[in-house]
Design goal:
The complex is a heterodimer.
Chain A lengths: L1 E12 L8 H9 L2 H8 L4 H6 L1 H6 L26 E2 L2 E4 L1 H10 L6 E3 L1 H5 L12 H10 L3 E5 L2 E6 L11 H25 L8 E4 L16 H8 L6 E4 L6 H14 L6 E5 L10 H6 L8 E11 L6 E2 L5 E2 L8 H15 L9 E4 L4 H4 L7 H15 L8 H8 L17 H10 L5 E8 L11 E8 L2
Parallel strand pairs in A: 1-3, 7-8, 7-9, 13-14
Antiparallel strand pairs in A: 1-10, 1-11, 2-3, 4-6, 5-6, 9-10, 11-15, 12-15, 14-15
Helix pairs in contact in A: 5-8, 8-9, 12-14, 14-15
Chain B lengths: L5 E7 L5 H10 L3 E8 L3
Parallel strand pairs in B: 1-2
Classes of the chains: A alpha+beta, B alpha+beta.
């Protein structure tokens, strides 16, 4: 069997990139006054770092601790919270910009020499003079990069006519690469594994790297591996919308179990496009714009060592093409059927991690509490199967679910933010079995009306 | 209530998807002129 040895999570604070998220970009183009309103609702790094859901994401609080935090969570920062996390940590925006530049082998990103000179750690980065940056923004379709009110750099297109290599697309790709690399570095630091010991990398990020002839051609995995010093690894990408991390972990476990590779890193970088996706709802309610962080995560999958939790490949839950789209049918396929295969009941699973979107982000914009919707369906299945009574549903949800806490970064909330907590709880003997469930919105690409989903079970040995 | 009515059904991935809404309303006599499922996260 294959096991998950470790999980790492990082958040990169990117308040001045929120304007380049898809929704803010489109809305500000139609109504430029929104740009100033948006800027007035951005949070400083310290507030983002102390935000309770972010502290859960990086491992300093357990998800269930959010039950005890009064709402709104943004008004109740975690006392003495810092940027360091048990599973990784949070990076301030200047560190993210440095990382973007470090990820750039084609001198497409220019950071102001004077700004770098005043920046801790900036001395090792080759900057651009201010007039070069001004020229690129004025005449070369470069996007300016800001740190607060100050313009500190730019990113320029890689081709004059190629819509796959515009500055905005490249910024999206570099953001995924840099945050994915941060997460992989955090994983290596946590495990003590030498970069050269990684044999294979699977990226489950949500970008589309490529040029005009191969949009989405990909293999961000190898670019991340190169940046992280994993010189003896090869890799590839798994594309399955927001369900990709579950697919990637299942693929990794299968490759390990088949003895193709022994040490596989599954990596997901952040999604620039989703920054500020719900910002209009936040502005309307006078809230800070909470979608101001890029997520990153990495997992180490390896052969069974008798200690780390095992991925049960004999019970992967899948949403078949012909399964239909009824919510009950989907949850039957993803949750009930794999458990039946193992002769288990729904109550044999200690924790379900399903689409862990932070509800404080989604509820104000009318998108509902996504994890709770999924937990209600799982609890309803337990009622239908007479495992619990109808009045036990809330207790089931409270005990076996958890509040959503992941940034709304598409693939990042896909159940897998809980892997790190599950490993810690299993090591402490607090949890025997957890199920990870993610859904993918295939219909968004207009190639099919299908939605998708995949699940797997993680078990303490 | 829906007999002879034209309906646009917008469903949600984590809630009730469009095809399910459409199927229910068609059984009640509605004509579904457009249905889609969207993802709001």
């Amino acid at each position: 069997m294959a096991v998950v040895k470790a999980a790492a999570y990082i958040l990169a604070h990117a308040p001045d990139l929120v304007r380049y998220g898809s929704k803010p970009w489109r809305e500000i183009a139609q109504n430029p006054a929104l740009g100033e309103r948006l800027r007035s609702h951005l949070r400083p790094f310290e507030a983002a770092a102390a935000y309770p859901p972010n502290q859960v994401f990086v491992g300093n609080l357990r998800p269930d601790a959010l039950h005890e935090v009064p709402e709104p969570w943004y008004a109740h920062p975690v006392p003495e919270a810092g940027p360091h996390g048990r599973f990784g940590g949070l990076l301030p925006q200047p560190a993210l910009y440095r990382a973007l530049k470090r990820a750039d082998q084609f001198d497409l990103i220019g950071l102001d020499t004077r700004w770098l000179a005043d920046l801790p750690g900036g001395e090792g980065v080759r900057g651009w003079p201010a007039d070069r940056i001004a020229q690129a923004v004025a005449a070369e379709q470069a996007l300016p990069l800001y740190d607060g009110p100050q313009q500190v750099g730019c990113i320029r297109p890689a081709h004059e006519q190629d819509e796959s290599l515009t500055a905005q697309v490249l910024l999206e790709n570099f953001a995924a690469k840099a945050t994915g690399a941060f997460a992989l570095e955090a994983l290596l630091a946590q495990t003590g594994l030498e970069p050269a010991a990684v044999e294979y990398i699977l990226s489950c990020s949500e970008e589309a790297v490529g040029d005009r002839y191969n949009r989405g051609g990909g293999n961000l995995a190898k670019a991340i591996g190169e940046l992280t010093g994993c010189g003896r690894a090869t890799g590839s990408d798994v594309k399955a919308f927001c369900a990709a991390p579950i697919y990637a972990l299942v693929h990794a476990a299968a490759l390990v179990e088949a003895r193709v590779f022994q040490r596989i890193a599954v990596v997901g970088g952040g999604s620039l496009a989703k920054l500020g996706m719900k910002f209009l709802g936040h502005l309307d309610r006078g809230m800070p714009v909470l979608e101001d962080v890029l997520g990153g995560m990495a997992f180490l999958v390896a052969p069974d060592d008798g200690q780390a939790p095992r991925i049960r490949l004999d019970a992967v839950g899948k949403h078949d093409i012909a399964a239909g789209s009824a919510p009950q049918a989907i949850m039957e396929a993803l949750v009930a059927r794999p458990l039946e295969q193992l002769g288990m009941k729904l109550c044999d699973v200690g924790k379900y991690a399903a689409e862990l979107h932070n509800p404080e982000v989604t509820v104000p914009s009318g998108s509902g509490n996504v994890p709770r919707t999924n937990y209600r369906m799982i609890a309803a299945l337990a009622v239908l199967r007479r495992e619990i009574g109808p009045r036990d549903m809330e207790d089931f949800i409270r005990a076996r679910g958890m509040p959503g806490y992941a940034p709304t970064q598409g693939h990042i909330p896909a159940g897998v933010p809980f892997v790190g907590h599950a490993l810690a709880m299993m090591a402490a003997g607090e949890l025997d079995r957890a199920m990870f469930i993610a859904k993918g919105s295939l219909f968004l690409g207009r190639m099919t009306q299908l939605s998708d989903g995949l699940s797997f079970l993680l078990e303490r040995p | 209530m829906f007999e002879g009515k034209k309906v646009i059904a917008i469903g949600e991935r984590d809630g009730v998807p469009g095809p399910v809404i459409a199927e229910c309303l068609e059984q009640l006599g509605a004509e579904v002129v457009f249905q889609a499922t969207e993802c709001f996260v």
